[in-house]
Amino acid sequence: MTTPATHPSNIIVVGNSSDNPFAIDVAYAMGQREDIADLISMKSFANSEFCPRFICGARGDTAIGCRLADKTVVVVSTSSRIVSRQDLAMRNMLIARSAKENGAKTVVLVEPDLYYSAQDRGPNHDLGKTITARSKEDLKKFDGQPFSAKLYAEMLKMSGVDTVVTVHNHSYSVQNQFSEVFGGQFHNLIPYEIYRDYLLNSNIVSHSADGEGLVLCAPDRGAREFVREMFHQLNLPKAKFILLNKARLGERKVKISLDEESVTAFEAISGHDIVLFDDMVRTGSTVVKSCQFLKQLKPGRLIFAVTHFYASDEGREKMAHHAIDEILTLNTLPTVLNRDVQGRLRRKMVVLKIEKWLARNLCKILDLHDSSQGSLYQIDMSSKNPRFSRKIWSNSELSELREEREAHVAHVGSSQLSVD
């Protein structure tokens, strides 16, 4: 049984809608027992303009305008099936301004999937810092567009937000920009411990006690450092790690191959369970191509683990492909928990609900005592999804299976493996 944290009186947790279940769960995990709807009113005027109002109880006329004095207001912001991200972004700013103009000491925005990260740089060299020098092609890609992430960061700061907390943001440029605007008060939380705990304690993959039979895979250079650290944190000395290379041949066409820097040869992973990690998926084109490529090696189970799951119609259709055995994701976009949103993918999807983990990290950031106990996450899955018994393989079983798979790879010719 989980014991929630003791909620300090100077912390108020709200959402950008009063019935946001993600925000409610974060608040509860932090020990808040008051309903968000009793703390803030999300009203709209007759002309549809949004106007939040903090409900602070009867404290007399002397408290007018300072009812939130010395309070820290935590605004939990997630996407919705009903309200657009543009509207939610504006709500965030109005809630922050309302908090500050009514005396709040600090405003913290918790946005697991940070808005406007897709337009993470602009059409000029001074609009977005990247790890390598920006090419003419990269600049042209953003020609005529705004550096939206920069504008969003500056507007949040101007509205009264002091601290921004997000989860596994993929863009170096976005992280750099938010760090510049918010100084040391930008926190990009990476869910290593959640993935590590689930992979080591669930039945989603099978391997020996020292990791023999397990392979982690980075689908492209952008995911490389994350997967390297994930590999390190699993601490399984005989697990393996491979790197793929993605070459774009067009807007929707990619070629997948083994990266020349990969330290593990394809012949060494036949029969292994493979976990391919990425930070987000939108259309599913690249991940399906990567899994088709890996399936040529006759692996064991092939798991796609992704932090941010955008369940577009195109993505659902593509990721129903038999090359992906199971999808492991987080609820940073809570709509993924909806069975209609999952569609056919519900038969092979596991969602880890991260509200408890996020609350624990918030306690650290706000320097609060965290007395909560229990798991880091809750597991949500379809009852129609058949679960697999966890199997600890013996070395002899793995050797026999590997020999069988290696014979197949030798027959196909590993040097010829690629998927266009």
Overview of the structural elements:
- The protein has 420 residues and is of the alpha/beta class.
- It has 2 domains: 11-189, Rossmann fold (3-Layer(aba) Sandwich), CATH 3.40.50; 192-353 and 390-416, Rossmann fold, CATH 3.40.50.2020.
- It contains 12 helices and 15 strands.
- The protein has helices at residues 21-29, 85-101, 136-141, 148-159, 172-182, 192-201, 224-234, 285-295, 313-319, 339-342, 355-365, 395-412, and strands at 11-15, 40-44, 50-54, 72-76, 106-110, 163-167, 186-189, 214-218, 240-248, 254-258, 273-281, 302-309, 326-330, 349-353, 378-381.
- The protein has an 8-stranded mixed β-sheet with strand order 10-9-8-11-12-13-14-15, with helices on both faces.
- Strand 12 (302-309), helix 9 (313-319) and strand 13 (326-330) form a beta-alpha-beta unit.
- Helix 4 packs parallel to helix 5 (172-182).
- The longest helix is centred in the last third of the chain and has 18 residues, at 395-412.
- The radius of gyration is 23 Å and the shape is globular.
